[in-house]
Amino acid sequence: MTSYASYPSLTGKSVFITGGATGIGASMVTHFAGQGASVGFIDIDDAAAEALAGRLGPGVRYLRCDVRDIAALQAAIAAFEAERGHIDVLVNNAANDDRHKVDEVDTAYWDNRMAINLRPQFFAAQAVRKGMARAGGGSIINLGSVVVQMAAAELAAYVTAKAGVYGMTRALAREFGPDRIRVNCLVPGWVMTERQIELWLDEAGERRIAERQCIPDKLMPEDLARMALFLAADDSRHCTSQSFIVDGGWI
Q1: Catalytically active residues, by annotation
Q2: 0.85 surpassed by pTM
């Protein structure tokens, strides 16, 4: 049986995760709770979120929030801060990689993609900054994607948003650094969430994994969660303004 690292510095920390009901987000909620952290997460999938929170116990709290509604996002963060005093760790996980053809994208669709995949990451970071500064520091983990380096097709708006996350990460790391707030980008490869398996993992996808990844094993949500634990813990106290790729060697 494989044993994984535990991080004493995460015990009792307050962690806020966006898009935490399923997939990578649910794994992160589970792993942070397993480290003894107090976890708050938001999502719009009530059934999955409530089942997850119920399974993990009283140290985990779910609040329904659509990240496209910035006022609601700010209110959710404020509510969790009111309970916990401040937020030590923010994980900007919420995203949607809906496929689309360039010729079919209109301004409403484009704005919606930015409103899901880029804008909430900035405003969540903005909302937690003062509390983290008062507490003497913190860690913000933004989720990028290897599709930026891959120049993936039928994802132009998503790729653009995720490319923006890279620049935003570096800009915020520079501004927040004097308050000992670290800002990093966690970059997943093709992670085998239920959504990915159901929608896109076919025989051709299996072949792409075998051809492109250096490591033949499928990349799982827990592989990203374990890197997030490290980036949140004091062990990574001088890691900031960086992108950490977890993709099995795809790119």
Answers
A1: 158
A2: yes
